[in-house]
Amino acid sequence: MTVGLFIPCYIDQFYPRAGIATYQLLERLGCTVVYPREQTCCGQPLANSGMEQEARPIYAHFVETFDRFDYIVCPSGSCVYHVNHHYDVLPESEGVTSVRERTFELADFLVNVLGVKTLNASFKGRVGIHNSCHGLRGLRLGASSERVGADFSYYRYLLSMVEGVELVPLDRVDECCGFGGTFSVNQPELSAKMGKDRIADHLRHDAEVITSGDMSCLMHMEGLIRREGLPLRVMHVAEILNSNGTRE
Length: 248
Fold this sequence. Notes:
- The protein is an alpha/beta fold.
- The protein has 13 helices and eight strands.
- Helix 4 (52-66) packs across helix 6 (94-102).
- The longest helix is centred in the C-terminal third of the chain and has 17 residues, at 188-204.
- The radius of gyration is 18 Å and the shape is globular.
- One of its GO terms (cellular component) is cytosol.
């Protein structure tokens, strides 16, 4: 299959290593991966700021750019959720419907499309999983505490295949980190306090690495970690799944 790789703005600008790891991981698993250079933002920042009409040309460009691929894969739950659920404002067409249906978050794609059951990967360290709100409650990449049902986590399932990873338990496995895009700009004090609480949970359980499928959440927490000089680092889940056991 041919996969169109969609890389979010903040990964492109600040964390290219997460995008490269996603590309390499998909290739290792047998996909033909294409990174269309004409891609831009999915339009989420504008829409979240109340400017969805202004974002519609960006939506249309996304559809035009990615319509030719078998699947569109993105290492970001929030961007994928936006494409899946908010592109309904575009005039209905076969292209729009098809792109919305074929756009997958990375872990969802690995589990439910590729059916991954083993990974040739190794990473030594104590890892805590941060579940982003869009990924957990929007895309259902794991169980959340407010819903009754079986406990599951795509990230936990995939990371359990990585040799050497020790997944640490957390007290509040589905708590928001406080980033929330423009929320962190409009409510900086509250956002920072939520982020510190999230980090403290990982520290209590001696985590060495916080991982997530959303680099935006990790970016928020990394800023707090750096300012406080805390003994933690952040890594996108793709970096661990693509790891060969060496420490960066």
